[in-house]
Specification:
Structural class: alpha+beta
Strand order of the largest sheet: 3-4-5-2-1-6
Strand content: 5-15%
Helix content: 55-70%
Number of domains: 4
Number of helices: 25
Largest sheet: 6 strands, mixed
């Protein structure tokens, strides 16, 4: 093989340890699939996944190797002989999968894999001796790598594992490859089998598409082949659902256009380090980054429109679609097994995606209005603003004016800048607390105390008050009216 870059020294040391252990057990190991593919493509992965194939007893071998390497160990498939090791070495986490041949020999095993570019193989001993050694390539994987093509190895590939239907598109999005026509025809023929795949695995492949800078392209392909609605059936009602004169597209085409515009906007913020750091923040849970969650928020931002459609005096309205959409997303997210943190982040973006537009529509953007937006949107404020900007750019109906578009852009960019300024600024000290109010006004604990504190916090936030005495005066006025 002629790799585009040499193997990492750390990878080589780990593989050498595995080889030495295999010699003591008299096992012949083959590296197969993605690890070799990525070396040839010059793709560096922070946390490598390496797949190994051996004739038999993969689970037994992996269990012994786990003890030798002091690595985590789990059986993935007892029936077909598949186990996984996870080993941290310094700042890299290695995932090592060991699988019995699925067939009488290695060639039959490779025939049962998903795509031609993942059927490359090499004996571990030969690879370590010479990383440029000749690869086993019985199904023209090297040719497809050179042509940048995703091609199913055989006609039963999707029967063996229906998730491969979705992986066709996720792998194409990761590598920026084209999908071969015959493979697309096979996708159309077998796509309903995807319903039998677990939602956890579907979620992982969907997020691989969302993390790609070309999500729009591949979400559009999934939609064209009617696969997206198999994953999220609620999308089907959005198709061909007409909107009012502010829009030039139906609800679903507008949603896809919003994704397209969002990707352009994010690209334009490449040199803004604050925005880049924000997009790369991990959300606890699986984990995931805000980048793909913001895209998911854009995909879901109008999910509530079909159920809120009303015609009043000949006008189409979708009142409350953001609130209903937020609730609908939670149902979808629970099916996809998203973490509670991921759900909370996207729900908030869907719920508040209209707020920046309302702020832009007001003649004056007041400090109070800004404070309330940042308070309600919280850490998702920038995500909300980016979705709002993309949503607005994807809205080009006859009633949408250039003046309103420019004001919306100006307000959004101003709020993004202000968000980071506030984040870096020293937070003001709390002037009074609940105990202060109870002691000073001889109150009993009640929801009224929370209301008073919220009003004081807002007054501090907009710069209206600065002292404890002023805070107590606000409390006194509220209590007088209560």
């Amino acid at each position: 093989m002629s790799p585009a870059h040499s193997i990492e020294n750390q990878d080589q040391r780990l593989l050498s340890h595995i080889l030495e252990f295999s010699k003591t057990c008299r096992f012949k190991l083959y590296i197969v699939g993605g690890f070799l593919r990525d070396i040839i493509l010059g793709r560096e992965r922070a946390n490598p996944d390496i797949d190994f194939a051996l004739k038999k007893n993969a689970i037994k071998f992996a269990a012994g190797l786990a003890k030798h390497l002091k690595a985590g160990f789990v059986v993935l498939d007892k029936t077909n002989g598949c186990a996984r090791l996870v080993k941290r070495i310094q700042d890299r986490i290695y995932t090592l999968d060991f699988t019995d041949f699925r067939g009488r020999n290695l060639q039959q095993d490779l025939l049962k894999r998903d795509f031609s570019i993942n059927t490359l193989a090499v004996e571990l001993r030969a690879f370590l001796k010479d990383p440029n050694c000749q690869l086993l390539d019985p199904y023209c994987g090297l040719k497809d790598l050179k042509s940048r093509i995703i091609r199913a190895v055989n006609h039963s590939a999707f029967d063996d594992d229906p998730l491969r239907i979705l992986r066709t598109f996720s792998l194409a999005s990761i590598l920026n490859f084209k999908i071969e026509r015959q493979t697309l025809r096979l996708v159309d023929k077998k796509k309903n089998k995807l319903k039998t795949a677990s939602y956890e695995r579907i979620r992982d492949e969907l997020f691989k598409i969302l993390v790609s800078p070309r999500s729009f392209e591949f979400l559009t392909q999934l939609d064209r082949h009617r696969i997206l609605e198999l994953i999220i059936p609620e999308i089907k009602a959005m198709h061909r659902l007409k909107q009012g004169p502010y829009h030039h597209l139906d609800v679903w085409r507008h949603t896809l256009e919003t994704i397209k515009e969002l990707e352009k906007i994010i690209k334009n913020f490449t040199r803004n380090q604050d925005v880049q750091d924000y997009l790369n923040e991990e959300v606890s849970g699986r984990p995931s980054q805000r980048y793909e969650l913001i895209k998911l928020g854009a995909l879901m931002h109008d999910i509530g429109k079909p159920k809120t459609l009303r015609k009043e005096d000949g006008k189409i309205t979708f009142r409350g679609h953001e609130r209903l959409g937020s609730d609908m997303f939670e149902e979808i997210a629970r099916r996809l097994k998203l973490s509670n943190d991921e759900i909370a982040v996207v729900k908030r973006m869907v719920l508040y995606h209209l707020r920046p537009g309302y702020l832009a529509d007001n003649p004056v953007l007041t400090p109070r209005a800004k404070f309330r937006f940042f308070r309600d949107a919280g850490e998702e404020a920038v995500g909300v603003l980016l979705i709002s900007l993309a949503d607005q750019r994807a809205t080009k109906g006859t009633l949408t004016t250039l003046k309103s578009r420019r004001r919306h852009e100006r307000i959004v960019r101003h709020l993004i800048k202000e968000y980071f300024q506030k984040k870096k600024a020293k937070k003001p000290l709390r002037l009074v607390g609940g105990d202060d109010l109870i002691r000073y006004f001889k109150l009993e604990p009640s929801p009224l105390i929370g209301k008073i504190l919220s009003q004081i916090e807002e007054s501090v936030g907009i710069g209206k008050i600065r002292t404890k005495r002023e805070a107590l005066k606000i409390a006194e006025r509220i209590l007088t009216r209560a």
